Amino acid sequence: MFEKKEKLTLVVLSGDLDKVMASYIIASGAAAAGMEVVMFFTFWGLKAIQRDGVFTGKGLFGRMLGVMNRGGLNAIGPSRLNMGGMGRWMFKLMMKQKGVTQLPELRQAAIDLGVKLMPCQMSMDVMEINCDHLIAETTEPVGVATMLEHAKESSIQFFI
């Protein structure tokens, strides 16, 4: 008899270092436990799947947003006490001193374990982000209906 694989859907709204880190840890843990995992990245969460050092935007506001909101894992800071980048530096140093896996390695582990990284098409349109701005391992952009289809089939859903 065919056994149905358990599923997890994560909606990643935040682009904060601590929240993105938690998202990738949960996703990797679930995938390592044999679950099928889908991560849906929307608005600020898109920073977690953007390539480093790429500026986005076509229009004036889109370019302004791209400059103020650089994506990529090396540009994101903690949700509290970032202090103009000082918090990001301290957080990364403390994680390294404690032997905690860094965010790029966590993301790669999730990818290697087969976690699907789905960018939100509407958020990309609003924020003037195109597929060239994202890492190669993402799926084609999808809408909320696709995310809801996965969430409906999932035994666990998180919104981070």
Structure description:
This protein has helices at 17-32, 60-68, 86-97, 103-112, 121-126, 144-153; strands at residues 7-12, 36-41, 116-119, 156-159. The termini are far apart. Helix 1 packs parallel to helix 4. The model has no long low-confidence stretch (mean pLDDT 92). It has 160 residues and is α/β, with parallel strands linked by helices. It has a 4-stranded parallel β-sheet, with helices on both faces.
**Measured on Cα atoms, how large is the radius of gyration?**
16 Å
Shape: globular
Largest sheet: 4 strands, parallel
Low-confidence runs of at least 5 consecutive residues? none
Average pLDDT number: 92
Largest sheet strand order:
3-2-1-4
Give the % helix.
Answer: 25-40%
Structural class: alpha/beta
Helix and strand element order = EHEHHHEHHE
Using DSSP, what is the number of strands? 4
Number of helices: 6
Distance between the termini: 36 Å
Query: What is the beta-strand fraction?
Result: 5-15%
